[in-house]
């Protein structure tokens, strides 16, 4: 099927201050609840035409497979067969195999490869040839962390890599209606150096190197955006579009005075879009998710290319089936509430975590063998036995798409 493409919308240190005017929703909590309820698909809320083009999933580091195809290709084919419009992937250079895509694969990657080289790899070229309308690519390489060394050469290399990659994508796919979003994985964790206890700044305190980390993040984001901006100017008009996004994941930490991507980085840069890995937006009534989107928009300075449009999308959200005594009904209610928020907020892209579950209940992740459903937490659309998850059943219901059938 050739899909109809959805149109894109239409130190301890003082926090970095910002001067631009911020505006947020003045709705009361009850008004937000009413608005969400009006947009919930299972409560007769209108489902926009072409909603499947706004939905997608991440495929990365799943703990099982079904075919003998290279794993990245297998997952992409499966998601395409389900009728989704968006595919999110890790896009990383490494020695040997690409992390997260080892099953049945012979990547033969080297650290000396450029991002353009990676995009030209036969596996990625095969995936990019599939009829998704949006590819979101996580690229985390090049951030300076807590280093106080001169970052000039690293930033120059980062900007050039993003320029060359963007030029390649715009040229290679210039006659196709397809969007590439170059983003990062959970920028707040990236800025903090991981998810270990000393990265829990709210619980364990803001470290002395936080100011350096924020400064380096600002410079890194700016370099990436500069590379994309320059390439778009040089490439001219193309049907293919490339955007740069920052992914935030600790929105509410920032609103409690803790350095965050949202409050400390976004005001200092111009950026095309913001992706929210939105687990800190979950609440029983949807208000926290709704207000979180407003908060992010209020700090966002859109790049000149966006012509004033403030685009926030959901880069990651999910509910694991196999923990916390979830049931089909609780998963269904969760997703309908989230969809009520996202439709009320006119969110252009909503990306489920994930296609095949990557998280064991206990122990480290590994791709040494196929895991069973009972071993995994249940972040999935398709379970290890091939059945549809409860989240997938919900998506089929609201989109009208049947399993393994493109409409």
Q: Can you summarize this structure?
A:
By secondary structure, the chain is an alpha/beta fold. It is built from 13 helices and 8 strands.
Structure description:
45% of the residues are buried. It is built from 13 helices and eight strands. It has a single domain (29-399), classed as Alpha-Beta Barrel (TIM Barrel). It starts with 28 loop residues before the first helix and ends in an 8-residue tail after the last helix. With 407 residues, it is of the alpha/beta class. The chain is globular. 34% of the residues lie in helices and 10% in strands. Strands 1-2-3-4-5-6-7-8 form an eight-stranded parallel barrel, surrounded by four helices.
The total domain count is 1
- The side-by-side strand order for the widest beta sheet comes to 1-2-3-4-5-6-7-8
What radius of gyration results from the CA coordinates? 20 Å
Through-space gap between termini: 7 Å
| Tally of strands | 8
Query: How much β-strand is present in the residues?
Result: 5-15%
Shape: globular
Proper CATH architecture? Alpha-Beta Barrel
Structural class: alpha/beta
Q: For the residues shown, what is the average pLDDT?
A: 92
Number of helices: 13
CATH class, named Alpha Beta
Low-confidence stretches: 1-21
Name a few traits of the molecule:
single chain, alpha/beta, eight-stranded parallel β-barrel, 13 helices, 8 strands, 34% helix, disordered N terminus
How would you summarize the topology of this molecule?
Blueprint: H1 29-39, E1 55-58, H2 71-81, E2 86-90, H3 115-119, H4 122-128, E3 134-138, H5 152-172, E4 179-183, H6 187-192, H7 201-204, H8 210-235, E5 241-248, H9 251-254, H10 261-265, E6 273-277, H11 287-299, E7 311-317, H12 328-344, E8 350-352, H13 390-399
Parallel strand pairs: 1-2, 1-8, 2-3, 3-4, 4-5, 5-6, 6-7, 7-8
Helix pairs in contact: 1-12, 2-4, 5-8
